Amino acid sequence: MKLVKAYIRPMLLEDVYSALRKGGHCCMTAFEGEGTGRYSDPDRQHGSLNFPAMHTHIVKIEIAAKEEDVSSIVEIIKKHGRTGRSGDGIVFVSPIEQPIRIRDGKQGADILN
Known about the structure:
Elements: E1 2-8, H1 13-22, E2 29-35, E3 56-65, H2 70-80, E4 90-95
Antiparallel strand pairs: 1-3, 1-4, 2-3
Helix pairs in contact: 1-2
């Protein structure tokens, strides 16, 4: 199993989500956040009293996936999560070592079914 983490523009979340659903990838978690760094959009950076560094708003998507689904998920995110401008985001793929379903203690990739 793998964990796909994608940081994208908030305005593209609905497009990415819809494309993932159409591609057969039903489940994800999304978080609102603020980011700084090389991947920020310089035209949309701002500061605030709560977060004084210059930053941009982002959405972080997390998807636990079977290994054979990862390339499809990443391609969908790349296609529907881009504007072609700086700040479009980044995707990380990491191994999941020990998935455990809380409800019944079941372990392994089958918990995604």
